[in-house]
Amino acid sequence: QVQLVESGGGLVQAGGSLRLSCAASGRTFRSYAMGWFRQAPGKEREFVATINWSGANTYYADSVKGRFTIYRDNAKNAVYLRMGSLKPEDSAVYYCAADHSGSMSTMDYEYEFWGQGTQVTVSS
């Protein structure tokens, strides 16, 4: 069982940066692949980024590639999403999720545990 709590969201101007954090409970955190997803009002939840258990491998949605970076600190049981060059279309509730299979999936149904989300709003 893994419990996830996101933080770091807020209001930022276009072109600005934010760092989201996801704190995880549970001794097995380091065995999970982790993902970030987002959901804007009226839209389906979409994949943003994923990272494998060690942090050596990452994968990004095309829409954020080159602007966002996912990384983790297993000693702190945390995963992060550094977001730069933010655009109004990045506005959404951002969720972190844990996948015990370690598959680094882009599909939300592959992730067993989810946080409550943190709101990111980018003003133009």
End-to-end Cα distance? 40 Å
- Using DSSP, what is the number of strands? 11
Task: Give the assembly state of these chains.
Answer: single chain
Q: Show unreliable segments.
A: none
* Global shape: globular
Largest sheet: 7 strands, mixed
Strand content: over 45%
Average pLDDT value?
Answer: 96
Explain what the structure shows:
The chain has 124 residues and is mainly β. Helix content is 0%, strand content 48%. It is built from no helices and eleven strands. Strands 2, 4, 5, 6, 9, 10 and 11 form a seven-stranded mixed sheet that branches. Strand 4 (33-39) and strand 5 (46-51) form a beta hairpin.
Structure, briefly:
0% of the residues lie in helices and 48% in strands. The chain has no helices and eleven strands.
Question: Which helices and strands, and how do they pair?
Answer:
Blueprint: E1 4-7, E2 10-13, E3 18-24, E4 33-39, E5 46-51, E6 58-60, E7 68-73, E8 78-83, E9 92-99, E10 113-114, E11 118-123
Parallel strand pairs: 2-11
Antiparallel strand pairs: 1-3, 3-8, 4-5, 4-9, 5-6, 7-8, 9-10, 9-11
Task: State the main characteristics.
four-stranded antiparallel β-sheet, mainly beta, 124 residues, 11 strands, seven-stranded mixed β-sheet, globular, 0% helix
